[in-house]
Amino acid sequence: MDYSFSPLGDQAIVIEVGTAINEHTQKEILAISSFLEANSPQWMTEFIPAFTTVSIFYNPLHISYGEVKSGLTALLKEASEITPSPPRTIEIPVCYGGDYGPDLEFVAQHNGLSTEEVIAIHTGTSYTVHMIGFAPGFPYLGGMSEKIAAPRRQSPRVSIPERSVGIAGNQTGVYPISTPGGWQLIGRTPTRLFLPEKEIPSLLRAGDTIVFRRITAEEYQTLEEIENADHT
Amino acid sequence: MLTIHKSGMQTTVQDFGRTGFQKYGVVGSGAMDPYALRIANLLVGNKENAAALEITLMGPSIHFDEDHVISICGGNLTPQLDGKVVGCWRAIPVTKGQTLTFGKPRSGSRCYVAVAGGIDVPAVMGSRSTYARAELGGYEGRALDSGDQLAIGEASAAQKSAAHNGSWFVPAPSYSPNPVIRITKGRQFELFSEQSRKDFLSETFSVNSQSDRMGYRLDGLRLALAEAQEMISEAVVFGSIQVPADGNPIILMADRQTVGGYPKIAEAITVDLPLISQLKPGDRLRFTEVSVEEAQRLLKLQEHTINCLKNAIRLKRRDMK
Predict the structure, then answer these.
(1) Which residues of A fall within a CB distance of 8 Å from B23?
(2) Which residue ranges does the record assign to the Carboxyltransferase domain (chain A) (predicted)?
């Protein structure tokens, strides 16, 4: 374990665990995150795990950069000894195509596939949540097949409905909130990913495994009604 | 209670923002000029992080439905009470039926109106700050509109009785339309070409009109990496200066996303963030480098000054009872 540290302004420090996205780096980041979750040092205000880094925020009125750095060196030795809990698997139901996925046809044509094949490939694999960011609850997912990769739209949509499932380049993702964006939309999920009323406001966490399950428009309606009833 | 009669350009409820939820992608938000917010709250006897109104360039018209003690800190947007200009950086008693309006921005671009008792909106994830993109916090998760009515928290008897006699105020910070902003080197500083590193620390940049609570876009000499390369997204902070492929730097502000994939040439130091927040489109700025140790020393120094002000305000308020 050879981590490098660097300042991120005067209130945060970055632990760089690796320089490339891979399983080994991800495991170490999960170990550090689990450790910080369970043993948060008194001086830490919060942390953000990402693909190859963990950034830790602190209050410089109470502790200096140098002290944080030496404190972390000791803590990370302890962190390396814990085994992170096995990943949770979360299923995301998706209604593909139609009004929910207006670009499914484009993704199929672009890859010389039928829409059915695109759906089969998208649902046929599991994805790893590398980090949450970009928007509240938005998962950066690894693991999508290159067979269904598609370029972003030439002109981004002004507003993408919340819970849309999309593809951009080699990535797939779900928009937790309505936002402008250039992703190709292939479907929509009735499951809410951003839960502002909950103590943990995101359905997903870094390290989770997710799978997409195909549902019909009727199932979508039913599940959406249940979701709406749950949080109002 | 107070009622918004005209909305102004962008008026939102803000406190110090959300802490602890960035790992779930929840943006920090909070006051763009936290120094002004703190002083505004101290002047009316509130907790430092009480929620106040953040007002942008063209101010709203605010009607007071009860007697209150208020303060207005930050940029000078020519505040007027029933048409008569009032001073900033001091406590001001207002009476039921009075209206606060704003005129021409004289200095800076944002100010905070604090009310004794604080703006009483529900806290979401530990904060009353508005994050409009996710319709989170503040007043119904959005900027205020005409007709909106805001409840005010219960002010203590001491807060209400400490009326202002007009003779004292807190000095305003040295806001400037062409500040020199101190920065610490960003994580990707060394990846920029030698020329770009030099340009960044010597040239003048101007604030583009496409600047908001999320980020300030800068125009000037374009900056480039020595060699093009794909970045892996990682955390960013309030003050991170990132450079997208077009070469025009963006300073990330209060409503920034939690992570970013553009190279960061620098981070503006915390004590200089209010100077950036008070810039208007067309204003110009330069950057100069300091060490992280120096940035942290300056922050401690500022904290010491605020503590002195806090004591002075407390004594003044006691005198006036």
Answers:
(1) 33, 46-49, 132, 206
(2) 3-204
